[in-house]
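Task 17 of the worksheet. Students: predict the tertiary structure of the chain below and write it out as structure tokens. Keep your answer in the requested format; marks are given for formatting as well as content.
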Amino acid sequence: MIKWGIMALGTIAEKFAYTLQQKGEGRLYAVASRSLEKAEAFASKYGDVKYFGSYEELCNCKEVDAIYISTPNNMHFENCRQALEAGKHVLCEKPFTTNTQQAKELYSLAEEKGLFIMEALWIYHLPLLKKAAELVAKGEIGDVNYIRADYGFTAEGARRERKFLSSLGGGALLDVGVYNLAFAKMIYRKDPVNIKTDRILNEYGTDSFGTLLADYGDNKFAALTSAIGIKMPTEGVIYGTKGKIYFPNYQKAEYMKITYNDGTEKEYNSPFEINGFEYQIEEAEKCILSHLQESPNYPHQESIGIMQSLEDIRKLWGMKFEFE
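Model answer:
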């Protein structure tokens, strides 16, 4: 059994802890916050769980096998490195880092240490998205030349500020646009060769809205839009010469429909066992127990490619974070 630690205890950490508890395989062993009181309150919800008032104490806890990192974007690189240096396997929230060089350094360090590390881009492990990619590869809807994906939500008050702060690596692109890029990459199996894009920057100097047309070569394109401040359905559509695959919510893919050019339809339902987080946890645990350093389903190079696209888009926008 893998003993998990959680570093940083926000909303996404609650989801991870709950899912881990429901799975009945891995065990939540310890949690850490920069506030001891917050760590204690969090731990009390999940039974016999150790708690620490610093990330260093969590990393130094000998019993912890793996650490789930859910700190703000700007801290991912340092926190992952800290955990790896302490000999811990790592599952780090997306975006993995804020630039490609950092990602490469972390993957190299994990290889050097003989440790598993994976970006927690959970949609890569959803059964229905994997099924869609499989069907496309088999030619179920013919040649795919166009993909559309949208993702937008609203945030108010302190949450809005946290999502946008340049000092934290904020903005819609890294928060939700990464899912759009991942969805397209899962289908095309490659990164864009050219991107045309525009954005709206907010008072924090980060993007509140971004839209792009990505060219993947061989007459394959994707139109991807992300926003914080505009509520949009998280739709994903894959268009082929023989039909299309439609997801009313690709990010939480439990249902998809294929509509063929002759008007016939085929529906697929794949309800989550818990909430969808279970599949990335299962993948991480399987890899760790098999002594793998990267996931065959979401290898390091795949993650690096997505990070490079994010970096390229920010360069086109002229959007730099305060710490860059």
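Marker's comment: The first helix runs from residue 11 to 23. The first strand starts at residue 3 and ends at 7.
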